[in-house]
């Protein structure tokens, strides 16, 4: 599929075709092993129904844990006044431990709803668990979107107030905004329980618990249910690449050894993150992780996952000190962790087999070939990959290059450089760019003037004018040219004026920057409202005409001197003028289809913070004049500097389709 029938040779002499055949073979072998030993992969991946705490029909409780290195295991908690050795587990085969608690005299469970517990061995505390969250809720889930528009969000920072916001707050205040903005998917970060708030949820301590700092499990289920009722798909940020090194409340040293869930010794430690690395060759670790995926799908009805730090999983070097040029030898060889690779194949196989509408997204900076191809082809089976080079490119351009020196060919190359047949989620910025130490696009563009000059009651300063126009153009160009899905981090759609910094010693445990100031959008005279309106209408236009679900764009004009980009996608025409000074009169553009074109979305409209230089009801008529490889073309009356617009095409004055003039 990507070698185009040629057996491309690696340095070892082995061909890529052989390597992918090997991956298929290893995957099939592993799947057959677990099906033979466990009866079926469905049963194997539902192990969370037998491990942990299970309630019988008579309200008796059975507790099972896997701790092969433990000498003795005990249960303690609120229910027994934290007595450490009053409730011992019984050792079973294969490193498993079991405890039965009979019902109380009144037939109620021995441990009541929302009780806090710890499992201990003879030397240390191990893991804190919040138990028994049951909720009757609606099982409706929206159909899988053909054009995925993702709103990346963190519940805790979702309020303008200086506090940790709740699931309930997010449901009430943020979901309606996401719906209004035209996003059809929300990606929730930091849901898996984590002790350190400032880790952004990437130092997971309890894989089978929703973070209690935001509310109860019922509250999270209500959030997911409400999103589904709005037609919004919900993805969970899934961290199976590593785990917190905490011993008091995490998996580390769960059975008293360093190799229970992880590789022993230095191989089990991430040298940069200070976290523990899973041993994907372990039968019980695979059981734990696959069951974890099933648990989130079954218990909370998530629609899929964004797998974090896939690069760290795929390679023994974890991407540390490694750059990827695209040479195939970088992706295949002894430096690839084949156990992790096969685990990801198993995860995607099971998720898509059992939940056909499930969406899986890989965060991989390396560009691993086949990541988003089917397992039958030797791929890893993901639906989408993140285009992580795109936000880096935009930041590099804004930091280092003057407007008049922008290399549009390089920008377009970055946006279109993706593997054929592998769908991508593109974005101009995500949470990474919002964190302290970096800047969002809006902050790079407008900096401190965002605090003083964003009022629409006064004339725009040159800095604000440039910033608002480029903020719109960068996001639309990324949206329309860069992939098969689009992602935005919460607040960036309206140019959130501050960075993101969680409470820590370095900022005196302040929540001032650990929030999103949605209130700025609600103030009518502030220009944040104009950026919000453009982002909304950009999404709604895509929703109507579906360029993300179409094939890759065909660029017909890439004029470096004029700073003009023109391309067609999904029967749409996009025209961008990135020149900071020059506007153009009677600018010829090429189109595939003859007809009449009308403007539908125009970034120069006043409501978007533009200057109103284009006549919105202008009609454009094609003529059979070949231009830039197309049989038809027409003249655009005016292409304003730093601007874009959208037009609709008619044939015989009957609606046919839309074109997007990104001017």
Automatic annotation (TrEMBL):
Gene Ontology CC: cytoplasm
UniProt xrefs under Pfam families: Alpha-amylase, Alpha-amylase_C, CBM_48
Protein name: 1,4-alpha-glucan branching enzyme
Catalysed reactions, semicolon-separated: Transfers a segment of a (1->4)-alpha-D-glucan chain to a primary hydroxy group in a similar glucan chain
EC primary class: transferase
Xref: InterPro entries: A-amylase/branching_C, Branching_enzy, GH, GH13_cat_dom, Glyco_hydro_13_N, Glyco_hydro_b, Ig-like_fold, Ig_E-set
Active site: 308, 363
Pathway(s) the chain acts in: Glycan biosynthesis
One Gene Ontology term of the molecular function aspect: cation binding
Sequence ranges assigned to domain Glycosyl hydrolase family 13 catalytic in this UniProt record: 170-519
